[in-house]
């Protein structure tokens, strides 16, 4: 671990000084570069020396020794720091490796990542081994430390034990605790969670909230208990309330909450025109949402909404770095910083034509440069999902008195079942489907009816879920079994069967929860799936998030969990899971 403690070893630091002394040549010289200088809040012109992954000098001077130096004239370009995504969920079908590569092509060269999937799917040793390997990517990766599972799971006290959480908090790559999806428990007196927050504070790390709809009083209480930032503002007034209580506020633009344009309009009407405590996040959107870009697209929207240009860039760079106390490494183009630099054609077009990440070209003259080495996922514990049991007709028995109704992509309510659900197929004339969550190890199941998902989907099987357990949805029991069988053959995925034939599939060969394909391939697969589902009655924003959040108890009102059908507001298991 000591090798991980320092960004550069003593020898590296001596080499960096030797470049200034002319004893070593820079590896890259950016001449006559007009760049954004955050210290002066101005566009300035300088020569920028880079050695390996670090900016060695920014100023008027040129190096004496250029024997091993690439020289780039920058007169027709504008340079800004690499963008930072402070709230990434790098497991939304894509994986951290593929997501980092894709993000860097849009200039987002630093990611601060959710550790949920690693905590649920891997033991601590394998998870930390993966973190170590991901450090070798051109993209810089930092992490969170979750305090709860965001759902009701079996053995939560083991997975989120004090020992495990403390080890994550102590890891050098972890910058924050949270996000606090379990904050109601915190307010109700969960002193273990409060202790972990205290530990994070002792280590000078941040606490990320998750407070949708929280009142002013609740926000104040959570600030007193240690929260620092929240990304759940859905109106300008909620941004205002959070700023009033001392929060840093993440403005969100995601596949299920594309709020940024409205937030900025409403903020401006309220007179909010100071942006130093405001940052951007795309909050783990689906692959297809990222086709338009990432933090670069948020900066573009902000500029279009009359945010001053420099403030717009700062919300995606230096504001985030200062908040996390990593501004000595990230967020600006200055001596000593990591060489993450975006090259733009104009101030109002934040999508870069060229990108440096840790001093390496990951995009040059509009073309992606692939410099990453593949990861042996199986060695890291992400082998294909192995299912050594079969789904039987006995599993597909539905007799629940009430079902689950979708209000939108992620909010679900109970409803009384009035149709006949005793047959093997439900009619296309309504939007009710058989719905089942079944243990990936085949130990238990919970069955009900789902209303509002679609009216003409025969059989869908998904190993992508909050916990990696298996979701089954459909009008036809036989097609549900066909989709499940195909998912089993693939080692995980999202599969749809229609009229006894597989018509859609997204293989997820990494533990059944992630794809091993590039994001560009996933985008096309997702678009095909979404198009198919829309034709068959899915009317909400994002089916990937619907699948993910069916088990997520941080949202109201009723959820399917490992413990059974769960009433979120009353914190009660309504119907327990059935052992198979």
Automatic annotation (TrEMBL):
The UniProt keywords, alphabetically, are: Hydrolase
> Can you state which reaction this protein catalyses?
adenine + H2O + H(+) = hypoxanthine + NH4(+)
**Ranges for domain Amidohydrolase-related:** 79-362
Q: Where is the Adenine deaminase C-terminal domain?
A: 410-571
Coiled-coil residue spans: none
Q: Does the entry feature the keyword Hydrolase, yes or no?
A: yes
Q: What is its EC number?
A: 3.5.4.2
Please name the InterPro entries in this protein's record. Adenine_deam_C (IPR026912), Amidohydro-rel (IPR006680), Metal-dep_hydrolase_composite (IPR011059), Metal_Hydrolase (IPR032466)
> Member of which family?
Belongs to the metallo-dependent hydrolases superfamily. Adenine deaminase family.
Family annotation (PANTHER family): ADENINE DEAMINASE YERA-RELATED, N-ACETYLGLUCOSAMINE-6-PHOSPHATE DEACETYLASE
Q: What is this protein called?
A: adenine deaminase
């Amino acid at each position: 671990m000591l090798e991980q403690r320092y960004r550069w070893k003593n020898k590296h630091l001596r080499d960096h000084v030797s470049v200034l002394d002319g004893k070593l040549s820079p590896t890259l010289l950016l001449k006559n570069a007009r760049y954004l200088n955050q210290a002066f809040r101005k566009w300035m012109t300088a020569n920028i020396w880079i050695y390996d992954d670090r900016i060695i000098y920014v100023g008027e001077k040129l190096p004496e020794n250029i024997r091993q130096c690439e020289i780039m004239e920058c007169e027709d370009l504008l340079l800004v720091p690499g963008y930072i995504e402070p709230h990434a969920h790098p497991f939304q079908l894509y994986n951290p490796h593929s997501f980092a590569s894709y993000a860097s092509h849009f200039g987002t060269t630093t990611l601060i990542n959710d550790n949920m999937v690693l905590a649920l799917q891997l033991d601590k040793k394998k998870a930390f081994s993966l973190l170590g390997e991901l450090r070798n990517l051109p993209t810089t990766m930092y992490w969170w430390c979750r305090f709860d599972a965001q759902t009701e799971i079996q053995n939560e006290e083991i997975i989120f034990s004090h020992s495990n959480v403390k080890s994550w908090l102590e890891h050098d790559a972890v910058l924050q605790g949270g996000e606090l999806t379990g904050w109601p428990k915190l307010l109700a007196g969960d002193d273990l969670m409060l202790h972990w927050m205290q530990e994070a504070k002792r280590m000078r790390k941040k606490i990320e909230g998750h407070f949708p709809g929280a009142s002013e009083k609740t926000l104040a209480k959570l600030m007193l208990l240690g929260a620092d930032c929240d990304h759940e503002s859905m109106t300008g007034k909620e941004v205002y309330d959070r700023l009033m209580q001392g929060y840093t506020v993440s403005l969100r633009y995601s596949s299920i909450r594309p709020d940024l344009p409205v937030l900025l309009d409403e903020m401006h009407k309220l007179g909010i025109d100071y942006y130093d405590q405001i940052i951007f996040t795309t909050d783990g959107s689906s692959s297809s949402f990222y086709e338009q870009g990432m933090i670069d697209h948020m900066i573009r929207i902000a500029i279009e909404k009359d945010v001053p240009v420099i403030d717009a860039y700062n919300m995606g760079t230096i504001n985030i770095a200062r908040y996390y106390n990593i501004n000595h490494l990230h967020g600006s183009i200055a001596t000593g910083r990591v060489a993450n630099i975006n090259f733009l054609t104009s101030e109002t077009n934040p999508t870069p034509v060229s990108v440096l990440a840790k001093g390496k070209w990951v995009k040059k003259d509009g073309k992606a440069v692939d410099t990453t080495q593949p990861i042996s996922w199986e060695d890291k514990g992400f082998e294909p999902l192995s299912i050594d049991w079969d789904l039987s007709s006995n599993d597909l028995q539905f007799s629940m008195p009430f079902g689950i109704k979708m209000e939108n992509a992620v909010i679900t309510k109970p409803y009384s079942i009035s149709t006949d659900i005793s047959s093997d197929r439900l009619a296309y004339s309504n939007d009710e489907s058989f719905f089942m969550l079944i243990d990936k190890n085949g130990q238990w199941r919970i069955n009900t009816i789902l209303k509002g998902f679609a009216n003409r989907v025969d059989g869908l099987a998904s190993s992508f879920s909050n916990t990696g357990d298996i979701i089954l949805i459909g009008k036809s029991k036989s097609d549900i079994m066909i989709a499940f069988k195909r998912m089993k053959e693939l080692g995980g995925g999202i599969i749809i069967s229609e009229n006894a034939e597989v018509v859609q599939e997204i293989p997820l060969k990494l533990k059944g929860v992630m794809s091993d394909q590039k994001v560009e391939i996933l985008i096309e697969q997702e678009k095909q799936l979404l198009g198919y589902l829309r034709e068959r009655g899915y009317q909400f924003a994002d089916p990937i998030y619907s699948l993910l959040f069916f088990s997520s108890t941080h949202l109201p009102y009723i959820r399917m969990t490992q413990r059974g059908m769960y009433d979120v507001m009353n914190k009660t298991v309504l119907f327990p899971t059935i052992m198979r």
